């Protein structure tokens, strides 16, 4: 079997392991951003670029785990004659501006404004004061992985945050296309997530996650831990109803989804985003779904729109995902030690993306992690206790100059 993956090989270590176990050949391709004004030419342009990698007809599957390549992926799937999702739905779900403007989201998102990158700091602040109340959250409309997402509590901190977000927009321009700065009112409640699949019109949440630690008072939005359990439909009726309303309203079908929500101070549930992909580069949902339910997310993904999909869990337990990032920009010094300690604490899977001596950015400027570990746990309470140990004992260290 031959698979074309839109993305970088170094971001797909878990999928490569999966394919290696099944004797599947993988080809990687990083397509350019699609020009917004040339939609009629998107498919032909992509198809011609892929021929430089090989005959499109020679690929049995075409996938991507990146938001910015979902439209690319299904344009190529159409050209190859594979089952494909609605392009308008994908375009909406992978562009924060389009997503927030969709009628299905009305009343389910935080109040916000959108500012062109050409907006000056004084004008941006003035518009924010006219339209919203502090604290606010600033984010790039083309962002992912919490890159550039910053909370601002006071007017005097706005300038630094606005300039920082504009910088991230520029860094993502080549791979994600043009963007704006989104400013939205901060929702002062817990953040939760759900992973699952849409199968022939039925929305099926399979995993429920809580992102930890709570970020009360912190300026950025990079939670390091994720405590996961099988989704309980009896307890999650509000989440399920909101998912069904938005997913069906947008028109997504036969697709994975990763949905993020946050509660406001009054307990109201708001949608942050719904991504039409396997979460965490595929690795997060694959490892957590396996740990919590015994199901294989990659196999389910491959079958969508082609054959029957069995979504009945094999077992029920909890899991912990921990994302290791540096606290300060600098050169890595102790990655080997952290990997060894994770193994000692029972990690079933450890994905190592960076090595000692490499330079890394700290949040909110980073768009990738140093390593990620997945731990099986008997219960969510056990996962939370383990999270405390990992936070205390497994700290990524850097130095400002290469040694």
Can you describe what's shown?
The chain is α+β, with helices and mostly antiparallel strands and 403 residues long. It folds into 3 domains: 2-84, Rossmann fold (3-Layer(aba) Sandwich); 111-185, 2-Layer Sandwich (Dna Ligase, domain 1), CATH 3.30.1490.20; 191-399, D-amino Acid Aminotransferase, Chain A, domain 1. The chain is built from 13 helices and 18 strands. The strands form 4 sheets. The protein has an 8-stranded antiparallel β-sheet, with helices on both faces. A 4-stranded antiparallel β-sheet has the order 4-7-5-6. A hairpin with a 2-residue loop joins strand 8 (191-199) and strand 9 (202-212). Helix 2 crosses helix 3.
CATH class category name of the largest domain: Alpha Beta
The CATH superfamily name of the largest domain is: ATP-grasp fold, B domain
Give the overall pLDDT as a whole number.
92
CATH fold-level label of the largest domain: D-amino Acid Aminotransferase, Chain A, domain 1
Strand content: 15-25%
Please provide the count of β strands. Answer: 18
Query: What separation lies between the terminal Cα atoms?
Result: 45 Å
């Amino acid at each position: 079997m031959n698979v074309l993956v839109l993305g970088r090989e170094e971001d797909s270590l878990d999928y490569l392991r999966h394919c290696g176990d099944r004797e599947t050949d993988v080809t990687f391709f990083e397509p350019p951003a699609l020009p917004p004004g040339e939609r009629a030419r998107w498919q032909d342009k992509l198809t011609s670029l892929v021929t430089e990698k090989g005959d499109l007809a020679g690929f049995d599957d075409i996938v991507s785990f990146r938001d910015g390549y979902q439209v690319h992926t299904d344009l190529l799937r159409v050209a190859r004659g594979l089952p494909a999702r609605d392009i308008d739905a994908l375009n909406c779900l992978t562009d924060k501006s389009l997503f927030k403007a969709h009628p299905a989201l009305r009343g389910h998102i935080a109040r916000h404004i959108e500012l062109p990158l050409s907006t000056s700091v004084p004008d941006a602040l003035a518009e924010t004061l006219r339209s919203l109340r502090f604290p606010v959250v600033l984010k790039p409309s083309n962002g992912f992985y919490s890159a550039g997402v910053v909370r601002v509590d006071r007017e005097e901190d706005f300038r630094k945050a606005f300039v920082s977000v504009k910088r991230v927009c520029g860094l993502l321009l080549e791979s994600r296309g043009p963007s704006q700065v989104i400013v939205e009112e901060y929702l002062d409640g817990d953040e939760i997530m759900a992973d699952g699949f849409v199968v022939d019109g039925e929305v099926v949440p399979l995993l429920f996650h809580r992102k930890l630690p709570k970020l009360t008072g912190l300026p950025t939005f990079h939670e390091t831990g994720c405590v996961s359990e099988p989704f309980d439909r009896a307890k999650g009726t509000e989440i399920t109803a909101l998912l069904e309303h938005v997913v069906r309203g947008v028109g997504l079908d036969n697709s994975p989804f990763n949905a993020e929500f946050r509660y406001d101070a009054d307990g109201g549930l708001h949608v942050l985003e719904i991504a039409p992909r396997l979460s965490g580069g595929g690795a997060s949902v694959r490892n957590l779904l396996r740990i919590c339910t015994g199901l294989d997310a990659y196999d389910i993904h491959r079958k969508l729109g082609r054959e029957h999909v069995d979504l009945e869990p094999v077992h029920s337990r909890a899991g912990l995902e921990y994302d290791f990032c540096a606290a300060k920009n600098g050169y890595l010094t102790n990655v080997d030690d952290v990997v060894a300690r994770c193994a000692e604490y029972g990690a079933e899977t450890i994905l190592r993306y960076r090595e000692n001596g490499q330079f890394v950015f700290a949040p909110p400027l980073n768009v990738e992690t140093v390593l990620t570990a997945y731990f099986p746990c008997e219960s969510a309470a056990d996962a939370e206790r383990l999270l405390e140990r990992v936070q205390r004992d497994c700290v990524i260290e850097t130095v400002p100059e290469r040694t």
